[in-house]
Automatic annotation (TrEMBL):
It comes from the Eukaryota. Pfam families: CBM_14, Glyco_hydro_18. Keywords: Chitin-binding, Disulfide bond, Glycosidase, Hydrolase, Signal. Residues 1-368 form the GH18 domain. SMART domains: ChtBD2, Glyco_18. GO terms for molecular function: chitin binding; chitinase activity. One of its GO terms (biological process) is carbohydrate metabolic process. The keyword Signal applies. Residues 409-471 form the Chitin-binding type-2 domain. This is Uncharacterized protein. InterPro entries: Chitin-bd_dom, Chitin-bd_dom_sf, Chitinase_II/V-like_cat, Chitinase_insertion_sf, GH, Glyco_hydro18_cat, Glyco_hydro_18_chit_AS, Glycosyl_Hydrlase_18.
Length: 471
């Protein structure tokens, strides 16, 4: 699960901080992003003013106290970093060694469990062709150094993972697939952004399968083709984690009578009220939009919705379930989401509970075969009818989580988000979101510390808190 450090700046209920994360829904949490230094020595460097402190890295990695086995990684790169500093770091064995050795200290001192390489992209966007081989060398050198440091210190070795771009040209230009798959702990495939408002016609953000009307290079624009291509290139299925977006790509329609795929468009749709980026909507902005007709495409296994002026290709509970089931059926390692802050994390927009998409993915990956309750439509052929289906009687909308959602008018009143003590039991705490609280258990051997908002070891508690917990 990816966390983005800029989501803290969204207005109102769109604001997202580490305490909004539901750790029960993720095995690994990845903090996006750190950058590379622009000059030597080649090192990791924080981006936001509060990354390297108690409200950033520290609060994020402290979430491990809430769930035994949870791992936290730091992602370096991202689209806005570009490739200049990456190319500098990759350029020689000496510059790579600077980065490798400094990254160990950086990650260990900040309690991260590994590094996620999100360079976009080796061999593209101004990066020279030589960076393809140099990136593979970096992965090999990181893995060797992290394993050796683990042996010398007796600690679990730091993980090395990577997020790979999905376009065929990006793969061909940037990745020695078989070699990097051998050395990486896993690969997160960025299997989204296949189409967007950079095209003059409508197209889906993340189709699972190819449509019969797609020809030429368009047959590459789907999850199934890309994953099969990586396997053919030598990447084992048990190293591949398939990305599922919690956002959609939106277009401005030119002709309201043309509402299917390849309909002519006039650029990006207006920005949403929370994400505030033209042509890009979080799921919670999509599910709460009015005046749209939803269509499920039976070939590509994804949904889109349209109004008189806007067309949005997105994933909802039905389509993420189909993707998660497909991941299981095909034997891939698992699923990744981009990103936590774009799902309806508060549960206040979609009337589907908190984290409806991530919950649905978890349920499907864990073998639950229940059909999700969502808007239903006909397929793309014929007239479209949109209805809303209520949950089956007695069926929880969030059966995965073992915790009951309770309203605490006194305990959580006035809190946008945060953790508060559970009266009378220091091994428990409440997570508050918009006046609603969920009861949580600390990891075994730890106790909730209200001043820090985390569970901690007994010796780390204040004397006052120890006294409270001894009563």
């Amino acid at each position: 699960c990816y966390y983005t450090n800029w989501s803290q700046y969204r207005p109102g209920t769109g604001k997202f901080i580490p305490s909004n994360i539901d750790v029960s829904l993720c095995d690994d949490l990845i903090y996006a992003f750190a950058f590379l230094s622009e000059s030597r020595p080649c090192t990791l460097t924080p981006i936001e003013w509060n990354d390297d402190g108690s409200n950033g890295y520290e609060q994020f990695t402290s979430l491990k106290m809430l769930k035994p086995g949870l791992r936290t990684l730091l992602a370096v790169g991202g689209w806005t970093m570009g490739t200049t500093s990456m190319t500098l770091m990759l350029s020689t064995q000496e510059t790579r060694a600077e980065f490798v050795s400094s990254s160990i200290e950086y990650l260990r001192s900040r309690n991260f469990d590994g590094l996620d390489l999100d360079f976009e992209y080796p061999g593209s966007r101004g990066s020279p062709p030589e960076d393809k081989q140099r990136f593979a060398s970096l992965v090999q050198e990181l893995k060797a150094a992290y394993d050796e440091e683990g042996r010398q210190t007796g600690q679990t070795p730091l993980m090395v993972t990577a997020a790979l771009g999905a376009p065929k040209s990006v793969i061909d230009n940037g990745y020695q697939v078989e070699q990097i798959c051998q050395d990486l702990d896993y690969i997160s495939l960025m299997s989204y952004d296949f189409e967007g408002a950079w095209n003059p016609y409508t197209g889906h953000n993340a189709p699972l399968k190819v449509r019969s009307d797609q020809v030429g290079n368009d047959v590459y624009l789907n999850v199934e083709w890309v994953v099969n291509y990586l396997v053919e290139q030598g990447c084992p299925k048990d190293k591949l984690i398939i990305g599922i977006p919690t956002y959609g790509r939106a277009f401005s329609l030119i002709d309201p009578s043309q509402t299917g795929f390849k309909a002519p468009t006039g650029g990006a749709a207006p920005a949403g009220p929370f994400t505030r980026e033209a042509g890009f909507y979080g799921y919670y902005e999509i599910c709460s939009s009015q005046g749209f007709t939803r269509v499920f495409d039976s070939e590509s296994k994804v949904a889109y919705q349209y109004s008189d002026s806007v067309w949005i290709g997105f994933d909802d509970r039905e389509t993420v379930r189909k993707k998660a089931q497909w991941i299981n059926q095909e034997g891939y390692m698992g699923a990744m989401i981009w990103s936590l802050d774009l799902d309806d994390f508060t549960g206040s927009f979609c009337s589907e509970g908190s984290y409806p998409l991530l919950t649905e993915i978890n349920l499907a990956l864990n073998g639950d075969s229940t059909t999700p309750t969502t808007k239903t439509t006909t397929t793309t052929s014929g007239p479209v009818t949109t209805t809303t289906t209520a949950p089956p009687a007695g069926k929880s909308q969030r059966p995965l989580s073992p915790r009951a959602t309770i309203s605490f008018s006194d305990t959580c009143e006035g809190l946008d988000s945060g953790y508060v003590a559970y009266p009378g039991d220091c091994t428990k705490f409440y997570q508050c979101v918009n006046g609603q609280g969920t009861e949580n258990m600390c990891a075994p051997g730890t106790f909730f510390c209200p001043s820090m908002g985390i569970c901690n070891w007994w010796d780390a508690l204040t004397d006052e808190r120890k006294e409270e917990c001894s009563d």
